[in-house]
């Protein structure tokens, strides 16, 4: 082979190596983009879950407060009923 043939072969080998490196870089970039997209989707799901859980918590707190109010009213009525029964029995 002539010296210029060796130079062309070396240049082609370098070009192949550069193309291979570029393909690997592009593949890596696509993989990172997919991973980023997956992460964004997961973040959206977490936010949706958080929103749903916050709403459920608000509803549970409302029910708990309502039950406390009803409990106080029942307790008040029981005390009144017991006092009435004592008053009747004491006659």
From TrEMBL:
Keywords, A to Z, come to: Coiled coil
Q: Which InterPro entries match?
A: DUF4164
Q: Which residues form a coiled coil?
A: 50-77
Q: Which domain of life is it from?
A: Bacteria
Please identify the protein, giving its name as recorded: Chromosome segregation ATPase
Species source reads Rhizobium lusitanum
